[in-house]
Amino acid sequence: MYTRTSDQKIKTIVNNGKANFGTYNEIPQKLDIRAMRSPYAGVPLPSFISKIRIKSRLNYIFDLKDFMGFTEFYDFKAFGLAEILLWNKNTGIKYAYHAFMANPHRFVPTATAKGRCACYKHTRRIKVSWGREHRHTALSFSLKGDRVRPAIEGFCISAINEKIHTDTLFVNPCPTSSRCSASWISTMSVKGKIEVNHEAAEQTSGLAAMIVNRAYYKFRSRINFCLGMGKVKDKDIIFHIKTSTMDAVNSDDYNDNLLSVDGEVTCLPSVYITHPFGSSKKWIIQDTEGMIDLTFEPQSIDDRTLNVIALRRVSKSLYGKFEGTLLTGKGEKLSFKNLSGIINSSSLRL
Question: Please, is 249 exposed, middle or buried when counting C-beta atoms within 10 Å of its C-beta (0-12, 13-18, 19+)?
Fold first, then answer.
């Protein structure tokens, strides 16, 4: 059976121009991948040029009793983009809110011990904050309504020192060892509530995951990632599975795929994510090691295209249900149906 070991500690991601590739269950003080030596085709370009090609992305996905949410901050250096999507799991109604940011608060911080990523626009207030010393992570938002969307306020906060909280760092070649991609994935249980049009709502419990990624991007790149969460056999499970055009050449040894079962992390092999009947129909997620065999049925889709001068970003976020099996590192087989989750498919041209 496929196995991948993880190291305990890492002081810095890049040391003397080379990345410390691997999987770690402790996080350095900074998620900083600068100072790679000649990251593009071995050409010793000025450092400010290679730094421009580093893009940052933060995702916060949560699942409460009645709602599933997908939050994303994208840092394009010249400007930022904040998005939050909410799906009512009972009615299937989707709420989508977007905002451009042109102020210093747009940047995804490099500090991992304590930090925040926020949009402070009057109509779109969205903030993700964290403090690893107390295993605290929080999302809060206040979204003003308009003629087609309601006003929504809500929050999710993880319990202090909760048992199922995990922090995992993946440092991967991107796609070769001259460039790297670093992903910090944190899984947790949360408590929160969402109020639509100021109607009172009760606080409920759920699960959440935060993913922070920094990478040296190509001129053209494409990323697909799946994230599912819920109860299986009375256990809290969260899985994150990703493929991209920047994956490492040896993607079985270096990838961002994991499964958390009650706080115990299993690193997963590389996968194939396909949708042979169209992106609005059934998706198939499988590996070659017999650990991942999933299908995904979309129930709601959000499409967005962004064109700014030479930059073009196309993003599709799908909410739906996962069905299939996953295998833990101990050989336990987890089978489930109707597990809530999302798939995000995005392409970027710089």
Answer: exposed
DSSP class of residue 134 equals: G
The torsion angles phi and psi of 46, rounded to 5 degrees, stand at -55, 145
Tokens of 283: 């998706």
Strands (E) in 144-203, as ranges, are 152-158, 166-173, 180-196
Q: What is the residue whose two structure tokens read 């650990």?
A: 291
pTM of the model: 0.94
What digits encode the pLDDT tens for the residues 229-247? Answer: 999 999 999 999 999 999 9
DSSP 66: S
Percent of the chain surpassing pLDDT 90: 70
Asked if 20 contacts 11 with a C-beta cutoff of 8 angstroms, the reply is: no
Q: Is 330 buried (19+), middle (13-18) or exposed (0-12) by CB count in 10 A?
A: exposed
Please, what is the Cα angle at 37 between 48 and 346, to 5 degrees? 65
CB 50 within 8 A of CB 39: yes
Measured distance between the N- and C-terminal CA atoms of the chain, rounded to whole angstroms: 40
Cα Rg, the chain, nearest whole Å: 19
- For residues 127 and 195, give the distance between their C-alpha atoms in angstroms, rounded to a whole number: 17
